[in-house]
Design goal:
Four copies of one chain form a homotetramer.
Chain A: H1 8-18, E1 28-35, E2 39-46, H2 49-55, E3 60-66, H3 75-96, E4 103-107, H4 118-124, H5 130-135, E5 147-150, H6 155-158, H7 162-173, E6 177-185, E7 195-199, H8 218-221, E8 225-233, H9 236-254, H10 258-266, H11 270-277, E9 284-288, H12 291-309
Parallel strand pairs in A: 4-5, 4-6, 6-8
Antiparallel strand pairs in A: 1-2, 2-3, 3-7, 7-8
């Protein structure tokens, strides 16, 4: 089964719909909690191999925090979101390590591409303490945790697989737990930059269960890995695929004639489609992932062209 | 007729297809020239009101330069593109003003949003001479043109309409011609950052002929306006709309049964759709226009959440 | 008299010291107020031509807010600083215009150079309302002020004098008052990014009284101009000059022999000098203003050199 | 002896001057080559312990390339500089490893601070091949070198010492040689961003010979380390110190009376000092290293203050 989403709760939805299940999937537990300020927490637990097979994700906890809005928030609402994230991350940390055990935070992705920069941006804001503990311990409480943080860059720029870099650092720095931040793919435009998934199963390229040794996981690194992911993009093909599914359903429901199809094609369905695609306040556009670089190159060519023409 | 593209040559294609025209549209002239390095120049001329009505664009010249690739070009190929742009811009300038007449270059768009930053980026690279001519004329050849350049920002950030800002500057600086740079919408993913449209009819919001007085045009500013635009985005709805059209055609061609629709729906069409949507080497994603800002906000919330949890 | 500072209170100090004045300068009034969180407000008033001549600054109000620290402030302290700025700016606005009169905020400087980007950065954060008032007045209270904001760029990049751009916009937008933001030069390293000067006399290039018609002032624009400036740099020559003055004083005080000078020269005075130059926690370095651009160029040359060598 | 410069050729000058040496320092060899376009190559070789002691730098090769100008260069001149860098780097590489041996390029410094971003910027432009060799070897010539590149960040942001990060990666990636890029301190404003030092002795914090095991060196990493450094800053104290030295010399030469000192102090020496400090075309300013961050904080406070006042 192909899910085309990294979010465990979306996979659960897709699976249930595809298999027309009304009850919970075997091997899965799920609960939802609504907090104030329209913050919703969904906790999906994959209990065993049955659950692993159903969602093609590793056994463990997958917590999703959905919020309605993140820009221009008053400070109180902002603090409520921060508190929710903190509480869920803490709950997973406490399952695996002691209060004062060392943690390394790793931010994945390419800091130069807007839609892939989340990991790098988060790292810049983490309050690291490891060097203080080492060189000026008098500035920290005795029981304070050693925290370090790194953004290893992407293989296209470094030539090195992320696992190789992180493994090298873990071997030297010897943290007891890893927190990894990454951008995710979602199936829903509405969730872009409004949803946070926190899990204690690490990050596996392609998301499959089989290749855990190639991901940032306990199997590959020897320490528990908490992954925090945020959807920043949806594939166009996913959107069109969904639109086509809806459309075929409609044709079937209405058992329409060829004449109807003709009419449909002549009509301009743009507004309807647009409405369906633009939930909330988003102004959706399709941009190639490389738009940052393309814009620089284009600006150079055009400005030189103008300079020469003048 | 709704074109959903700012490119005159795309509008011509849409109009011809919709009206099943084999010959040229009345009031339109079009020629295509293939240069080396796979540079293609398309020159659409709107001759009269008939042409204006057909394409809903003002009478004048619309030149499109399409290139195959813009990143990592060897210097010679890069120079060929620059030369083509320069030649076409120059040809339009020379229709309207003298060799040494003053020019003001205006870069539109929001420099902080990647997909809208083209105008601002171009302005940073324009070789301005007006201040040198004014204060140190000895550093310039006597017949050199006065060039100035400005990026007025977007109304959402300034509270002022672009026309108001530009009109104020034109009244004070008194150039003889304006060159305006902007990002455009195209109907084709393949053209994003690979196509340059150069016209001598200015820029009209919404593109319609009727409201020329509200755009950056000769009507509103009193001087000729050359517009250079580059497609940087395609609307998702356009893509889905096109995909649906193709799909309906296929259904009609094959006069398929309901059974067929059932089968189709159960199949996974993702790979086919992806292939259709990803011409060339683009890695397509759908990103909200506000992704830059969203990413910053999200990074703050998550990092604070992590800090608090540790 | 050459002051080499744009800060009125520093000019007052220099003038008093140079003229060995114990009492206030004729034509000047000055008061100091200490607020909580070590915020100090100094209000210098130039009353008449005598005062203008002494400080070579126009008649009017010059308010300086000094703070001890601006990074990593707890929210309450941050709000106290914001409140102080707001109160002083408001007091000057209210002298000149009505509660609901239109205001245009102008951010000067080159947004691409770190030490000159303040004006541009401030503009990005101003809550503009003019377009809302014009197009969606129902979203605003009836008595709310029309606010617009623009960053006109620097003459080196636009070829246009700032006054020409601003005059054009003022003529079209017709605000009743201008607020101008700019980076200033100070005589004191300690004040860099820790001091805010607010005045109601506009901004005059070179600071002199004589050329008010060339600056952004009531004389040139026809409306009152409030200037908000922040010191972001000190000239190296100012620092060395001050160090030499101190040194000569020391020599004179001690009526030292040539032998002493010899000894002094052989000693390493670096640590003493460093201490004298680095008040507070600053890690001082001397950087060419163009360092941003130089760093880009250098990185290109070195990386290409390495690529070629490999 | 305190040199306050990382450049071997400057240390040689300081040492010779301090010890009034006319001949070469024992244990040092030095040659200078002038290439076209005013490129000068200085090759300092530290031959033995005597040389190490004199310059407090490790035995090995220190090559400095000085250029007159780096911005707005015509392509030919730019290529000449790139060729010089490439030739010198290659000569050092070939002393230590075979033509096809693996190389890891490491960019030091904080990419967010303009004056410290060089290492990070260079890394973004290195053509890495290691991943291609591993996953798509058919795209590379068989004898092509495996190249990887990483920017490990600074300890203040990561909590991890650079050596720990790099050691971890070297242990996993197993390159045969390291190239390290870093910003340097120079004694001369004129050399900022105009001089490149290439050495085969690695990078040692503080520059001392004694603590080689703590630096990025053959001793600590087990493979040869080529260091490429570029001066991006001069300490203010160094400049003032030099100015005082010059001044004392002048006093001594002229055996001046106290009267003279009085006169000197009353005169305004600013212009002379400025001239002495501003060789070439630099517009010197003193900026705290933290100016990037300070500017952001300040812009926030001021804009909020304005917003509140309006």
């Amino acid at each position: 089964m192909l899910f085309r989403t990294d979010m465990a709760d979306e996979r659960r939805d897709v699976y249930k719909k595809a298999n027309k299940l009304e009850d919970e999937i075997e091997g899965i537990e799920c609960e939802t909690e609504d907090l104030k300020d329209e913050i919703r927490v969904t906790r999906v637990k994959i209990l065993n191999e049955k659950g692993e097979e159903a969602l093609n994700k590793k056994k463990g906890n997958y917590i999703t925090i959905d919020v309605k809005k993140i820009t221009n928030l008053p400070e109180e609402k902002q603090n409520n979101i921060i508190n929710s994230i903190s509480k869920e991350v803490k709950s997973l940390i406490n399952i695996h390590i002691k209060e004062d055990a060392e943690v390394l935070v790793v931010g994945l992705g390419n800091g130069n591409l807007v839609a892939d920069a989340l990991g790098t941006k988060v790292i810049e804001n983490i309050e690291v303490t490891r060097h203080i503990k080492k060189y000026c311990p008098e500035f920290l409480n005795e029981d304070e945790r050693e925290i370090s943080a790194i953004a290893p860059g992407v293989m296209g720029l470094t030539g090195i697989e992320t696992l190789e870099v992180v493994k090298g650092i873990v071997d030297n720095v010897k943290p007891k737990l890893l927190i990894v931040i990454d951008s995710l793919a979602s199936r829903s435009i509405e969730r872009i930059s409004k949803s946070i998934q926190i899990s204690d199963t690490g990050i596996i390229p392609g998301g499959g269960v089989g290749n855990a040794r190639k991901g940032l996981t306990k199997e590959s690194l020897g320490i528990p890995v908490i992954a925090i992911g945020i959807p920043t993009a949806v594939e166009t093909a996913v959107i069109v695929n969904d639109a086509l599914d809806l459309f075929i359903s409609k044709l079937q429901d209405e058992a329409r004639s060829n004449e109807y199809l003709n009419k449909l094609k002549e009509e301009d369905n743009y507004e309807e489609i647009k409405e369906a695609l633009v939930p909330g306040n988003y102004n959706l556009i399709v941009t190639p992932k490389e738009i940052d670089e393309l814009a620089d190159d284009m600006a150079l060519l055009v400005s030189e062209g103008i300079n020469m023409s003048l």
